[in-house]
Structures are given as C-alpha cells and as structure tokens.
Recover the amino acids of this structure.
C-alpha cells in the first residue's frame, strides 16, 4: 500500500482510539492533547496539494513528538517537489532538517536523484551530528543509508564523504548507535557508484 495513503487511512483511526502505534511490536501510547491536535491539523494536507500546506506543516517538522513530525513530513511530501526542495536543503533546526532531508529522499523524482544526492550528502556533513541526541543521530544514520538505497548509485566522492564522516564519528551514545554505524559503514563501502 502506498505509504502516504497508509498514513491518511491510519491517522484518523488512531486519533479515534487516542493512540499511535510507533512501530511494529511497540505498545501504543495515549497522545497528549497538543500532539493529537497537531496531527489532526496536519492530516488534512496528506495526499493532496494545498497552497497553505507548507506554511502550516513546516514548523511541525521540528516537533519533539515523532508522530507529529511524521504527519508533517507526509504533508510536505504531498506538495510539489520544487516548491519546497530548496527550503529543505536550507533548514537548520535539527529535527526539521532531518525530516526535511528525509522528505527530499522520499519524494525526489527519479530523474533528479543524481543531482540531489550530492546536496544531501553535503547537508548531512553540516548537521552537527556530534551535538545531536541519540534519536537524532540514529535518524541521521538512517538518512545516510536512504540516500544510497533510494536515490541509486552515488558518486565516488559522495561515498568517500559519507565513509569519512561516519568512520571518524566520535564514540556513539549507545551500543545500538555503534552497531548502526558499523552496519552503515559496511553498507556504504559496498554501495555501487556511478
């Protein structure tokens, strides 16, 4: 099922139940009132183009609530790619930048993938990963993998840039982050280049 359609279909059900299912096997938790209101506000923009969607959804990309960020990102992705591409590359707030870059990867037209990947790799190097929380660092690791997995072969320079960034990364906060860095480095090292 299309991911955007899945979110559109599930969000109203989860609002009704007063909970979200954060991941497979995870226990659903009650939504706080502000997060629930934000999700309801953003859900109307999913799967449809709306001139106001970017202005409404963009601030929520930096929400501390992951479910709110997910709904905001889906609303952004539903808008014409060229209307928010540059804004995403210029975003500086940690969560908003991670979510905006992820939206670029998810929504990028195949014909623009080769031109976008150098910008994404550059943005990842400027995120200030060492000052990020553990959750943000893990999101940056997933973002790096997504560049290689979803946008197709990258240049040798881009691969070298990402290998250099993550192989010289200071000691991660947890064993999980350390394991993710190790897996990512092995993945990047074997990734095809153009």
């Amino acid at each position: 099922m299309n991911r955007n359609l899945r979110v559109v279909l599930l969000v109203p059900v989860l609002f009704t139940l007063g909970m979200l299912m954060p991941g497979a096997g995870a226990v659903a938790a009650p939504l706080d009132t502000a997060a629930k209101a934000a999700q309801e506000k953003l859900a109307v923009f999913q799967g449809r183009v709306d001139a106001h969607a970017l202005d409404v959804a963009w601030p929520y990309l930096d929400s501390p609530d992951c479910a709110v960020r997910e709904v905001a990102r889906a609303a952004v992705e539903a808008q014409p790619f060229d209307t928010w591409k540059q804004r995403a590359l210029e975003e500086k707030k940690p969560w908003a930048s991670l979510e905006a870059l992820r939206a670029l990867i998810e929504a990028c037209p195949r014909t623009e993938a080769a031109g976008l990947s150098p910008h994404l790799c550059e943005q990842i190097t400027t995120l200030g990963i060492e000052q990020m929380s553990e959750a943000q660092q893990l999101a940056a690791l997933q973002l790096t993998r997504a560049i290689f997995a979803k946008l197709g072969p990258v240049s040798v320079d881009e691969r070298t840039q990402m290998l250099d960034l993550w192989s010289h990364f200071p000691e991660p906060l947890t064993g999980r982050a350390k394991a993710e860095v190790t897996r990512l480095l092995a993945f990047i090292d074997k990734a095809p280049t153009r």
About this structure: Confidence is low (pLDDT under 50) at residues 1-28.
